[in-house]
Specification:
Elements lengths: L2 H12 L2 E6 L6 H9 L4 E2 L7 H7 L8 H10 L4 H5 L1 E4 L4 E4 L5 H15 L3 H15 L9 E7 L3 H7 L4 E4 L3
Parallel strand pairs: 1-5, 1-6, 2-5
Antiparallel strand pairs: 3-4
């Protein structure tokens, strides 16, 4: 672990977070996410990771072993397309190309973050965002905010981890 990597992890720890609360189809969610993802100051995974939904449905709070947690998240959940290289979904069945992701770096960065900062829901979320950024060579010094799509029924979990988060509700 280099000091440079630890500095990047600290940047991620201090970034503000915005949650896009969505749920109703055909309201432009994918279009809006694509616009946000193209902004150079925003760190987001442009597809339906729905981290807080995954965390809840996979009972990740019970996993304190980093290797077991990594296997569950990256090989058995909606995060799997990052490892496989593509995601095919959404209303128009569009394909999102993740072939440029350095898969080994994604896993190593995720585990490294958790080794340095511990395992809890908030840290796992930040580890995922950090690892994604590292795997696509993001310049963390230019990132100003992390954006994550979430379902409305996960709002309490998002808000309890990030009480100062910005919330955008597209459910109207």
């Amino acid at each position: 672990m280099t000091n440079k990597n630890l500095d990047k992890m600290r940047i991620v720890n201090n970034l503000p977070v915005c949650f896009l609360l969505t749920g109703i189809g055909r309201t432009g969610n994918h279009f809006f996410m694509g616009l946000l993802d193209s902004h150079p100051q925003i760190l987001m995974i442009n597809y339906e990771t729905l981290f807080y939904d995954i965390y809840k449905s996979f009972s990740c709070e019970d996993l304190k072993n980093i290797d077991l947690l990594t296997n569950k998240l990256f090989y058995n959940s909606r995060i799997k397309p990052l490892i496989e290289g593509s995601f095919f979904g959404g209303y128009q069945r569009e394909a999102i190309d993740y072939s440029k992701i350095d898969k080994n770096n994604l896993i190593i960065s995720f585990k490294s973050y958790l080794h340095n900062f511990g395992i809890n829901r908030k840290k796992i979320f930040l580890a995922l965002m950090y690892a994604f950024g590292e795997s696509i060579n993001v310049d963390f010094s230019k990132i100003k905010i992390i954006v994550e799509r979430s379902l409305i029924d996960c709002f309490y979990d998002c808000y309890s981890d990030f009480p100062d988060a910005k919330i955008y509700n597209n459910n109207s």
